[in-house]
Amino acid sequence: MYLSRQLRLLPKASIGRSITTSSTHYTTTTGAAVAPAGEHIEIPNRIERSPTDILKALASTVGRDHTAPHYKYHDDPFLIPMSNMAKRTYAMSKEAGRKAAKWIKEEHRELFLHQEAQPAIEKFAPSMVYTEESEVDESSLGQLIELGELKDAVLVYNLLEQKGMAVSPELKQSLLELVCFHNNQDPLPEEYIEERWFLQNNQRRERHGKTWKDGDLAEKLYAEIEPKTPQTYAALIRGMAKYLQCERAYALLQEAGEKQIQLDTNTFNSIIQIISFLKDNAEQRWQLCTELLQQMSQQKLRPNLGTLNAILQCISTFGNFKLARSSALKVLPEFKQLGVSPSLGTYYYLLIIFCRERGPVSHVIVDILNEIAGREFTVEHPKDTYFFATAMDVCRNHLNDKALAKKVNELLHTGNNYDLVGDSFKESIYYRNYLALLCQTESIEDFMLTYDLLVPNIYIPEPGIMEEVLRTIEINAAVEHVPRIWSDMVVFDHTHRESLLLYVLRIMVDNRPNAETPSQSQLPEQCAKVALDMYNKIEESVRRIKKVSFTGQMLGDILTLLVRGDNYEKASEVFSHIDKNQHRIPGTPAESALQEYVEASIKEKSPSQALAALQYAVDNNMESSVIAKRIHDGFTLNEAHLAKLKSLVGESFLEK
Amino acid sequence: MNFLKKLPLQLAPMALAESQICKSDLHTSAVCCRVQSGRYRITTKRNRPLTYEMANPPHFIAHRKSWNSWNTSTLLDSQRPAQTAVEDLFIRKFITGTWHALTCSEIIIKRQHNTIRIASIIRQAISPRKMYFLIGYTEELLSYWMQCPVTLELQTVADKKDVVFKYI
């Protein structure tokens, strides 16, 4: 940097000379051919840099670290979140702390009036408080509108009105725009990112009905502004359309049209977006859409990206698949001709138009990905953040194509595209679909690589996905992964799901590890540990709210695993639990479980345990002759034991 | 004082008297700081717990242990030495008070450019959720006060005894 600045100060000729001489010097020493005499080095012009360019360059050298939690969490084992619940709670409590501090600042404002920073930073000082008594004028209203402080702006406006001070039409117009934009409701402050990140899915659900405040300040302001300018109409129409007061918004648009008022493109876009609320069936919607577009062209309005996305949104609500498809295909080339380049939101709409659950299979996503692979996107439209979750959903549920999913994932991790993943809800949908697809289509080894990469810092599987993973393990008989998955399940708090527990047990019981192969020699022991852990977990859960109760099947599996893991002591403890509570536990253990237990008792030379097992089998109407025979052959029984055996299975059996 | 001997006799007493006056002006009490500050007295039962930081007296700074405040305010021509010291005191009081009975080490304050990083060791006596609340609160409120970004860099220990280096 320093050197280049010095160079710029020198006269041009001397730079050229000094550099050429040095280069000839270099070439002669190495003995290569001398550079041609006329060689001239072009020094590039200085590039203007912004103050944050160095920071951006530095930031581009570090990516997301898969081995560490997100940087909003504290890097300490105690403070690292280990379940989806914890991720949410921790981030939200940190923000709650922030809010508390802000409240203190506002409450004890006299303590925070010092000015340390130069220049002063407004955000660190307590905000201005406006009350009924404050001295206000037009300029303060203007300032508040500039800052987007809706509540204060409205208060000041009312004060001005009370005092009979005139407010200029321009200011009224900008206040109208502010009120319409937020529907006269204070929005969630921008600095609370976590709240946005975790809250958005709730908001979406409640946005189906009309929320526009009829007869409120916005309409009052609108009535006051005379003469009405196109901007006045535009503000009110857009506000009504945004908060789904559809009929009146459309009526207002028509009124503007009758009065020959020249509206702008974005106002038309907002009406096109709500066509589905205005008309009932596809044909009428499409007709209204074309009418509106014709009006736009009459008014010589140039459509933009918003228009394209609004039309596609309208089309995506068509129940008629064929009409939706053909009209979407008609719209796209027209906009291409107009030079409107589509955003991710456009592709999102295309996906939901073409890939419907009950429609024919469409491979439109292949073409989309070919078109946009390797491109970096920025936010251009509110719906841009819906693309990745939907694309992955299409890959899994519509096409079930692994290669496509990988392409989508690659696109997500290109440049800053990860910013467009949306919120926590969409992110988890994305990864849910991605993992589920991979575990259905990939080999278990490859899948586990991805699993290790994503879990637990980027994504924590929900119980449903855990079941998918277990299914894959079962199909591949990859019992060696079970201990690891089990420890994950414990950490993610999935141990109160009975179906998952049974699944884990079934996999371990059905796939008896081969002790001869060195890679599996540790497995019986590990499986026994898992089983014992599960047994303890279930016993503990009696005291918790989410209770899991033992079933005979479950206990039989645990018993088998403990026997196989050479933990006879614990096995007999589990068996005595089965034996004692046989009236409380639904179902019985499998016969094979009892047989293996008896087998182990023979090895351990404890006939009374074996006889207890036999007693249990007889009591519960299970096939007991095999066990009795094993006991008779395996032990040299004393009188008492023999008598017991006889009483259980009868004299006749022994004579055979 | 050797040079006094070479002076003429009549001059010597005068110079001596003068130097005695100077001495009493400059120094009126015994030097305590070298003996007491940053040092801990041995108890009779030998049960006073010391962390590693406390166990090393000040002359080991930069040898066995490090500074508790890191800033450049005392270098030549640098600004705000007094304010920085007072602010550090405030931060320490604020943290020990906000994280009440939870801090089990000294509070290290590092200033770089416009940010302040505060490091400490915290006892795991409250749930992580509450800890996150306090982290958010402390960072935000201190940054309102100092008017610059403040970051907490905490580590947690399960038990207070984990940081005890020795008992004296």
Overall description:
The complex is a heterodimer of chains A (656) and B (168). Chain A contains 33 helices and no strands. The N terminus of chain A is likely disordered. Chain A has 656 residues and is mainly α. In chain A, 63% of the residues lie in helices and 0% in strands. Chain A is elongated. The N terminus of chain B is likely disordered. In chain B, 36% of the residues lie in helices and 18% in strands. In chain B, the strands form two sheets. A four-stranded mixed beta sheet of chain B has the order 2-3-4-5, with helices on one face. In chain B, strands 1-6 form a two-stranded antiparallel sheet. The longest helix of chain B is centred in the C-terminal third of the chain and has 19 residues. In chain B, helix 5 links the parallel strand 4 and strand 5. By secondary structure, chain B is an alpha/beta fold. The interface between A and B is medium-sized, with 27 and 26 residues.
Descriptive terms for the model:
heterodimer; A: 656 residues; mainly alpha; disordered N terminus; B: 168 residues; alpha/beta; Alpha-Beta Plaits; 2 domains; four-stranded mixed β-sheet; two-stranded antiparallel ribbon; 5 helices
Sketch the topology of chain B as an H/E string, one letter per element: HHEHEHEEHEE
Q: Uncertain runs of chain A with pLDDT below 50, 5 residues or more?
A: 1-32
Give the CATH class of the largest domain in chain B: Alpha Beta
Largest sheet of chain B: 4 strands, mixed
Query: Based on helices, strands and strand pairing, what is the structural class of chain B?
Result: alpha/beta
Q: What level of helicity do the residues of chain B show? A: 25-40%
